[in-house]
Every structure is written in structure tokens, then in C-alpha cells.
Amino acid sequence: MSQGNERLHHQYIKYTVYLHIEDPWKLFLFHAHKAAMDAFTRGLALELAPFGVRANTVRPGAIRSNFHRRDNVPGLGDDESYNKFLDTIAKDNPSGRVGEQEDVATAVSFLASDKASYINGGDIVVDGGRYVQY
After folding, report:
1. What are the Cα distances from residue 112, in Å, to 53, 93, 102?
2. Which residues of the chain fall short of a pLDDT of 70?
3. Residue 25: exposed, middle, or buried by beta-carbon count in 10 A (0-12, 13-18, 19+)?
4. Whose C-alpha in 55, 76, 95, 104 is 20 to 30 A from the C-alpha of 124?
């Protein structure tokens, strides 16, 4: 029988994105939602830490995937336009490249591992240095 003081050793990892949104109202809603989710994650980190549950956020930058090819960024349906888009992003990034899905997966895998057992309520930015540029 449980005494009620067992530690669970679980992780909650929130994945958040940066989007190009031109409509000011949609942009406002996006940032308001993002701020609320950040506060939610920090609240989880505080409330659930005594039970061995950690909560963290992974913030990827531009990652090579089909995400941009969907209706999120108009005009990127063909390979030539998409590759030109990625080249532009890479040139503007301090690392000189676009992220790969494996870059994000590595961060998530690390946070979910025991090696990150003392990381709670944090953000890992996976964007090649783009965030610190501004």
C-alpha cells in the first residue's frame, strides 16, 4: 500500500513554436496563448515537483519539416520556393543553418532523461542562436 509520499518521476515537456503571423489580432492571440501556456508550465513545475514531476518547455526555431509547407506560410508549396526560404533563414541565423528535426528530438530526449533530473520549470531554446540575436 502506498503511503502517499511516493515520487512519480514523470516529465511534462511543452513544445512551443514561433510563427509568422501578419494579422495583428491573430498575433495578439498567439502571444497571449503562448504566455498563458508558459505560466501553466511554470505552475506545473512548482506544484508537481514534490511528487517527482518535472515540467519544461522546448522552443524550436526554424526546423526543416513540412510545417512551413502547409498553409502556414503561403507560397512554399514547391521545392524551389521552400529551399530558397530555408536558405534565407540559414543566412540570417548565427549558426548559419536551419535546424533539423533531430536537433529538437535530442533536446526533448535529454529533458525526458534522468540526466535532466534537476531541470524543472525551464526553457530550452533550439534555434541556432536566433533568439539571442534580438
Report:
1. 11, 27, 15
2. 1-9, 14-25, 68, 70-74
3. exposed
4. 76
46 residue type, one letter: L
- Confirm if 86 and 20 have CB atoms less than 8 A apart: no
Q: Enter the pTM of the model.
A: 0.78
Pick from 72, 58, 70: which is nearest to 30 by CA?
A: 72
How is residue 73 annotated by DSSP?
A: S
Burial zone of 62 (CB within 10 Å; 0-12 exposed, 13-18 middle, 19+ buried): buried
The sign one gets for the Cα dihedral 107, 109, 113, 119 is: positive
Query: Which candidate, 62, 61, 51, places its Cα nearest to that of 8?
Result: 51
Contact present, 48 and 55 (Cβ < 8 Å): yes
**Domains along the chain?**
10-129 (3.40.50.720)
Task: For residue range 28-66, list pLDDT tens digits in order.
Answer: 888 888 889 889 999 999 999 999 999 999 999 889 988
Distance of CA 104 to the CA centre of its chain: 8
